[in-house]
Amino acid sequence: MYLTNEEEKILKGEYGPGLALAMELLVKLGEVFDADRLIPVKMAHWGLSGQEGDLAFAEELAEGGAKVRVSTTTNPAWDYELVNVFKPELNEHEIELVKRTYDVCEKLGVTKSFSCIPIYGIEERVKYGDHLAFSESSTPPYINSIIGARTNRESSASALAAAIIGKTPNYGLHLDENRLPNVEVEVDFEPDDFDFGMLGVYLGNLLSPKDIPLIKGLKRMPSFEALRDFGAMLNVSGTTAMYHLYGLTPEIVKLEKEGRVPDKLQRISVEKKEIDELKEKLRQKRGPINSVFMGCPHSTYAEILKVNELLGNRKVSKNVSFIICTSSYIYDRLKKEGVYDQLEKKGVSVIKDTCVDEPVFKKLEGMLGATNSYKAYYYRQRRNQELAVMPLKDVVEAAVKGRND
């Protein structure tokens, strides 16, 4: 892989050990994937989640004097204030991890956004054709597919290394030839938001890591929430970092005009009954629930308003912890507009900067919960808690009743 004189000097350590370590990772990654060179990136998103492996690498970079060169956001860990809210039985190591997370972000110059939806409003900063380095499962599909910017599905380490150098290896979805569809998916029904997320689960199980599906049959562009969930669920059940929506997403429209859509595509047909069967399978656990988890990926402002509307004058069952995870930006807006207080009185806890896959929810483990997110279902299973997956309206009803009937 070709390196400029400055890149060679960085690799040799002339700019300090932190930059040298970041460059070494990028060079090795580029060599593995036969990249010809490094290319500049406009932004990065670091999938840090308060985990030991990610922190150790980041701390070594910081100790070596490294700082990010481009705007860099980060994933949530958990808000330390939750210790007073949920009173979890945390050990010293778990508490230390979150403190180290905040500290290393400060040292590296990373924006402490702590949100897994850095795509929320990203169109104001990122344009078609821009090169980025984003980790976090739900973001690369949105960036590649909906905006037409370019990123591979980076690891936490490679995204941070790219942020520090300001460049990433030129391979994968940064190249035109690797962004063409090779699978045609015919959807024979018009999915609502929840069904579109379930379609992501369904297709993730069928597609290979190299597949880029061209999805046909949609009459309109899905909502932001549906697109967020579709991309996230593709990458929980599978590893698909890009897709095209026929006639809707910018790159496939351009490819059609240029006559560059391949003629021979593998074909998959998805019928409504197949999605309905999947929904029934994920909802089948019945009985009393002790919790509701929303916001995996983080809930939007509109989504949280919908919860408030669906509850009306009712309250969540006293036996249910109703948890909505969101970003600080949305959290602050809800507080300012009084929605936070309304929801709190109804028994809903809106929390910021936090992922459902964190130790602060230990007391909810071992019992059944409910969610509108397959990704939350996946994460909570790893923490000894089963969740019934269902549409938002049904989640709210289960929370009020205290059970999934």
Walk me through the structure:
The structure is a single chain. The protein has 405 residues and is of the alpha/beta class. 48% of the residues are buried. Helix 2 packs across helix 3 (52-63), helix 3 (52-63) packs parallel to helix 5 and helix 8 (193-206) crosses helix 11 (272-283). Helices cover 42% and strands 14% of the residues. It has three domains: 5-176, Aconitase, domain 3; 180-278, no CATH class; 284-404, 2-Layer Sandwich (Aconitase, domain 3). The strands form five sheets. The protein has a five-stranded parallel beta sheet, sandwiched between helices. The longest helix has 17 residues, at 92-108. It is globular. It is built from 16 helices and 16 strands.
Write the layout of secondary structure elements.
Elements (H helix, E strand, L loop, with lengths): L4 H7 L5 H16 L5 E3 L2 E4 L5 H12 L7 E4 L7 H5 L5 H17 L24 E2 L4 H9 L8 H10 L1 E3 L13 E5 L5 H14 L6 E4 L7 H14 L6 E2 L4 H9 L7 E5 L1 H12 L3 E2 L2 E4 L6 H11 L9 E6 L1 H9 L2 H7 L2 E5 L16 E3 L2 H8 L5 E3 L2 H10 L1 E2 L1
Parallel strand pairs: 2-3, 2-4, 6-7, 6-9, 7-8, 11-12, 11-14, 12-13, 14-15
Antiparallel strand pairs: 1-5, 10-16
Helix pairs in contact: 2-3, 2-7, 3-5, 6-9, 8-9, 8-11
